[in-house]
C-alpha cells in the first residue's frame, strides 16, 4: 500500500464518523473475494469519458480498488482514500494484477483532505456518510477541483432502505437529489437524477436499487 504523505492534513472541527469504522470495513473486506466485485461502477464507467485525458482523480471511499483501477486503466492518475487498510491492500493487489499504478491513503475522511495540486476529478461512489460529514467531505473535495473539474457521485437514496439489494439500513446516511443540490452549492450541476436501476457489484450490491446520480463541475 502506498500512502502519499503530502496530501493529508488534520481538518479540525469536522464531524466525526462512528468509532471503529475502519475496523468494521476491514472485517467486511477480509478474505480473498472482492465484496463488491472487481468491475467498476456503471455510472462511473458511463461518466469517465467526460474527464480530461490523464486526469488527476481523487476517489473517496475507494474500498477494494475496482473504481480506481478502472480509472488507472484509462490512463488517469488516481488517489484512492478509504478508512480500511485491508480494502486498500486489496486495491493495490488488484492494480498490480491489472498492470497499473494507483496511490492509496488509509484515512478517516473527517480528519483528512486533499492538499496537492488542483484535481481534474473527484469520484464519490457509495460514499455514505452522516449529513454534516457528507457535506464537509464533498465540499472540501469540490474546493480542490480545478475550474471545470468533474465530480462524479452515485449514492443510494432513502427509498433503498428495506430492499435488501445493498447499501446501509440507516436512511440518514442516504441523500436525495434535493439534499445534494442544497449541500453542494459550490458546484455547477450538469446531471442530477434519482432513478431505479439494476446494480450488479459482487455480493454486496445486487438487484433493483433506488439511487441518485450526480455530475457537476468545479468553479
**CATH fold call:** Rossmann fold
CATH superfamily: Vaccinia Virus protein VP39
Instruction: Count helical runs.
Output: 6
Name of the CATH class: Alpha Beta
- Using only C-alpha atoms, the radius of gyration works out to 16 Å
Proportion in β-strands: 25-35%
Following the backbone from N to C, one meets helices and strands in this order, namely HHEHEHEEHEHEE
Helical proportion, percent range? 25-40%
| Arithmetic mean pLDDT | 92
Overall tally of structural domains:
1
Strand order of the largest sheet: 3-2-1-4-5-7-6
Low-confidence stretches: 1-17
Q: Sheet bearing the most strands, described?
A: 7 strands, mixed
Number of strands: 7
Give the overall shape: globular
Characterization of the model:
By secondary structure, this protein is of the alpha/beta class. The protein has one domain (21-218): Rossmann fold (3-Layer(aba) Sandwich). The chain is built from six helices and seven strands. Strands 3-2-1-4-5-7-6 form a seven-stranded mixed β-sheet. Helix 4 links the parallel strand 2 and strand 3. Helix 1 (21-29) packs across helix 4. The radius of gyration is 16 Å and the shape is globular. The termini are far apart.
Amino acid at each position: 500500500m502506498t500512502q502519499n504523505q503530502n496530501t493529508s492534513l488534520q481538518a479540525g472541527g469536522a464531524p466525526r464518523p462512528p468509532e471503529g469504522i475502519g475496523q468494521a470495513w476491514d472485517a467486511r473486506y477480509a478474505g480473498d473475494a472482492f465484496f463488491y466485485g472487481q468491475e467498476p461502477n456503471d455510472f462511473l464507467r458511463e461518466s469517465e469519458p467526460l474527464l480530461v485525458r490523464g486526469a488527476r482523480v481523487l476517489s473517496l471511499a475507494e474500498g477494494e480498488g475496482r473504481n480506481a483501477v478502472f480509472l488507472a486503466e484509462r490512463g488517469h492518475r488516481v488517489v484512492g482514500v478509504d478508512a480500511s487498510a485491508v480494502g486498500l491492500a486489496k486495491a493495490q493487489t488488484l492494480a498490480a494484477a491489472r498492470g497499473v499504478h494507483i496511490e492509496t491513503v488509509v484515512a478517516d475522511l473527517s480528519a483528512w483532505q486533499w492538499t496537492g495540486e488542483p484535481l481534474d476529478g473527484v469520484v464519490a461512489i457509495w460514499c455514505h456518510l452522516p449529513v454534516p460529514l457528507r457535506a464537509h467531505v464533498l465540499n472540501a473535495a469540490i474546493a480542490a477541483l480545478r475550474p471545470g473539474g468533474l465530480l462524479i457521485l452515485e449514492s443510494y437514496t432513502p427509498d433503498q432502505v428495506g430492499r435488501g439489494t445493498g447499501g446501509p439500513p440507516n436512511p440518514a446516511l442516504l441523500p436525495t437529489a434535493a439534499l445534494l443540490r442544497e449541500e453542494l452549492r459550490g458546484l455547477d450541476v450538469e446531471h442530477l437524477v434519482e432513478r431505479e436501476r439494476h446494480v450488479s457489484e459482487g455480493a454486496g450490491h445486487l438487484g433493483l436499487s433506488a439511487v441518485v446520480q450526480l455530475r457537476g463541475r468545479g468553479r
